[in-house]
C-alpha cells in the first residue's frame, strides 16, 4: 500500500471548553490516519484510553478527543502544508 497524506481536524472537549487542532499525517488509509491523530493527542497510556462517543476519552474522562474531518491531501500540496502546519 502506498503512503498518503491526510489533514485531520481534531476537537478536544474538556467540560465547557473546546479547542480544535489540525494535524498533517502520513498513513495508508483514512481510518488509520484518524486513529493515529486521536491517540497522538492523548497524554495517557493507550491501555487507559476509553474509546466512546465517536472519539476517545483521556485523563479518566476529563478530555474527549474526536475527529471533525479527515481529508486526503494531494501530493503537490504536501510541501506547502508542511511549511505552515
Automatic annotation (TrEMBL):
Name of protein: Uncharacterized protein
UniProt source species: Salmonella enterica
